[in-house]
Design brief:
The protein has 133 residues and is mainly α. The chain has 6 helices and no strands.
Length: 133
Amino acid sequence: MKTAAGYAAGLLFGLGLAISGMTDPARVVGFLDVAGAWDPTLMFVLGGAVLTTFIGYRLVFKRPAPLLGGVFQLPTKRELDAKLLGGAALFGIGWGLSGYCPGPAIASISALSLPLLAMLVTMVLGWFAAKRL
């Protein structure tokens, strides 16, 4: 049941990305181009995600435990360190250069292009590098 719920959540996430146009890297780059032809679409998608998360967390944390798990697994680390800041910087640089973040990149695999393949390969290399650091 837990695996089926994970697949359903991933499918819903991928459909949301596709419907909102976030699988198009030009839309993301357009959002980051504040001095040029700025495209505010991503701001509305992010706002919808923040609102959904705000409401969802308040509802979910009223429960003593998750529906499909024993306990809530929440991060406990609160300090900023070099690994976190470096990873955030690399994510931002990759997102700005490619127009993809991991979710939309994976959702776009059916329309694989050379820039998307390059982004996915570097993302996987980054995972391996992060495990070694």
